[in-house]
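Thread: quick sanity check before group meeting

JM: Hey all, I'm pulling together slides for Thursday and realized we never actually wrote out the predicted structure for the chain we discussed last week. Dropping the sequence here so it's in one place. If anyone has concerns about the input, flag it before I start.
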Amino acid sequence: MQILVLGAAAGGGLPQWNCGCENCADARSGQLQPATQSSIAVSPDGESWVLLNASPDIGVQLQRIPQMHPQSLRGSPITSVVLTNGDIDHIAGLLTLREKTPFTLHATHSGMEIINTNTVFGVLDSALVERETIELDVPFTPLPDLTITPFSVPGKVALFLEGDDLNLQEVGEQTVGLMLETPAGRAAYIPGCAALPDWLMDTIQDVDLLMFDGTVWHNDDMERTGTGKKTGLRMGHIPINGPEGSLVRLKDLNARKVFLHINNTNPIWQPARPERAAVQDAGWEIAFDGMELSL
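JM (edit): ok, ran it. Output follows.
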């Protein structure tokens, strides 16, 4: 199994267009490597690829990674796209993939409803882009030797769908993780997760690789940096730090562990910060654009 991190950052990327925080300023000045919005690609053979989420930065991402380049006059090694939720930073890139090349779009019932009821996605030619609804805990095979099984994780609906009655840790199909399996091993991709209950820990206990939500270090990263009032949990993301944070909850997981979907305000971007050292000392890696993983 080959995995490419197309984008390591959360919504807005690093730097975020309207943010002057320390991390964004350092990314603009070249002191930090910029990062685009969250997406990965997976392949069982290094030739045909499945995208997991389609970020608004997908055009730039596909241009700079040679494995994603066309191998003929017109075409793409991308055979399908799988969505983990309906967040803008995971679906907006579909609009870039409208240039008359076939692929299959996979999403849960709720995810597909977002696509089907928003007419802007009609630019995806129905004669070329097949839409397949996926079911929780039911495996499907987008490529030979690659099986993907969606599973529920606690989360919330996309921001543009929020109403007055909002469950920040809803368990259903609006937010899913993806279990990726080839003959070489098993990997779990969970870019958004609001909590780590025991049942979810059981789901991922035997993976060889975990790619997990690293949006915020402290629940109140944004308030600490003066960039906003929303907490990680309000956005549907478990913090890394704290007694119920992912660093503690996942400390005994015997797998390669990588944080991705990292917000622009998260201090783990900074090489000299103790938060980054704490993550690395705990055996975690921090994703970056262009990172290559394999099993």
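AS: nice. The chain is about 20% helix and 25% strand. The longest helix spans residues 109-117.
JM: adding both to the slides.
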